[in-house]
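pasting for ref. prot 1 ->
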Amino acid sequence: MAVQPPPADRRTVIENAAIATVDAQGTECARGHVVIKGNLIESVGDGPAPQGLDGVVRRIDGAGHLLTPGLVNAHHHFYQWITRGLAQDDTLFDWLVTLYPTWARIDDRLVHAASLGSVAALLKSGCTTASDHHYVFPRGAGDLLGASIEAVQQLGLRFTALRGSMDLSRKDGGLPPDRAVEDIDEVLSASEAAVDRWHDPSFGSMLQIAIAPCSPFSVSTELLRRSAELARRKGVRLHTHGSETAEEGRFCEEQFGMGPTDYFESTGWLGEDVWMAHCVHMNDSDIAKFAETGTGVAHCPSSNARLAAGIARVPDMIRAGVPVGLGVDGTASNESGELGTELRNALLINRLHGRPDALTARGALRLGTMGGARLLGRQHEIGSIEVGKLADLALWKVDGVMHSSIADPVAALVLGALPPLSVLFVNGNAVVEEGRLTTADENRIALICARAAQELAARG
């Protein structure tokens, strides 16, 4: 059952905290307050909260803490939680060829278990909203999208479920085995049914759907085009992998006579309703087209490094006006499964371009909050601490031994070790307290995930 929002007249008051609002002006408070009323932010500012508030059920002393918006994960593959640590030294195409046969044996029960593990890791690292790109739908595997949605609702995360797809198997020139792909009509029918069943476009929605064919090397041109038409007819967003590796670029040149960005443009896949994962191998023309059309990028620094894909030109994208957010990517290529650590990794990896100011600590925090909110089309609801926005908030403890000598609390969060979470609020509910989930037994989740991984391995 989904976690319900607090009563609309119930207030929680946080005082004495350093606050990084991540609003348009970058407003910060050295010692400020936030008042939550129901599931909304009622007040934020310097100094103590207003006096005489009714219905206050909790007061939190935020001294020694940094309060930020909850982090927003713009790209993930939850099902991969139970295939971590495999193909450790492969690049993307070899890694996929190794793992596709295993993934083709998943079912809804295993996806539910994997989603519990993935969501637990996200919440415990400060993430309050996530998108999950599920694109493997073996025949007879059950309701895989529903299984992930059920797990998310159990733990209390705000969610965009991406109904992915693949229709190019090995016999068609793609990488996936035949068992892992669907035909076009099946994909489009299932995608439309998912939107009709689950998509909630209302303000404060806890569940939305986007349509997300997997990649140029696992999806036909027809499926890309028809998916874009379907998404725009239904009023939902579009997502895929793009320009992840040099091999993908060569594949597109050989198959279509053009690079990935031009190919996506030819299929209707550039626009403000589109965001793509990775975008590592982008030239100046590609970046200009993304900026001109408002096409977004989910930057996944740890996964890009794990698979030796390269270093995305994130500083250049930002300067050009490309919307950029952060993603964990699947936990078979980023075994930590944490979004909080991507703040630090994004900053460090992008400075390898040779520019120490390529990405700042506050810039990295913006990528992980407002950047991701914009990619999901929810920048007016989440991503910053502003009056009237949803109460998705992370309260980080920065006065412990690992952080207390860093005077700048934002630097403590981004440049230091990931601080402990004292409280994580999603929709006004405290879903993490003192670093532990409040909505589920972590030890039970660990056991469920271990057994699921063992069962999947045994199916081979």
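and prot 2 ->
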Amino acid sequence: MSTPTQNASSSRPHRAARLEDRFNALVARKLAERGWVPRVEPYTGYGADGWVRVMARTLLAPPDSEPREVAERDAASAQRAVRGWRSFVTAQVPATEVEVQAGSRRHVLRSDRGGYIDQIVESDLEPGWHDVTLTVSGRSITAPVLVVAPDQRTALVSDIDDTVMVTALPRPLLAAWNSMVLHENARRVVPGMAALYRRWNEANPGSPTFYLSTGAWNVAPALRRFLARHGYPAGPLLLTDWGPTNTGWFRSGQQHKRDTLRRLLQELPQISWVLVGDDGQHDPQIYGDIAAEHPDRITLVAIRQLTPAEQLLAHGTPAPAEDDDVAARAATPLVVHGGDGNEIALRLIDAGVL
């Protein structure tokens, strides 16, 4: 049984990453002196026949807390408004061993310098939704994983910011406001998008939905609550870490999206993909390039057209960027546009694919 390959990285971190590591080590030491203990924050994973991708993060928690107090599994937290900055107040624990039980297979994984676990492991889980158990220091919690059936032929990848919810994320000050200050419930849903995704799933039974964003993993619980609250189909979140890397101060959001799409294409070779994004930044360019690389794998690209006001917030002008033309990069996929999910649905109905 072969599993998908995993990306290699430089062994020597950038100076900024080393400074971050020293700061995090100081915080972790002080909290450990106060009795704080490691816990696992689970993220939604996915897999296929014989393997699953396990994603989680090891963090410190007060000694009297229980695993159920992780925000996204706490029913009370799921119902109350939470200011975004609370998601970023965390103390990660690097190099921590986590026991993973995936079906009858047991694995021991080790978190990286940011406390993250993102690894492919062998599994004997059948297609569908399952829970894998993650245990650290005797404290266990479950993480959902979606195992894609070998006969599944289509899947949908959706951007998040300005595609399923309005955030005006690309502008740095507004990004900070939306991510760290606003209550979760203040974020606005894009009309019709949840209904569009549900209708697509009904027309394509078993089709998984993946949510791809340049947002930080810190906001994963809040994003999952937002998607569930507004009726979006459940699916793995594919986010990133905003902090320093082995090569620089910050990660490239565009490169994260390109790498993730290419990884999905490699891991699920039988799938033809539907890509949904918006024209506020780089989605049309990225999707067009991926479609040009894999003309037989991308069947549909749907682009939400931002309003002039949203465009102005996104990149400083009231019109889309000149290079945001999917068809100019790849002629193979069907490309539809609309101001919201309702308009996109009408375009798909007119095209005979919905």
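The first strand starts at residue 37 and ends at 42.
The chain has nine helices and 16 strands.
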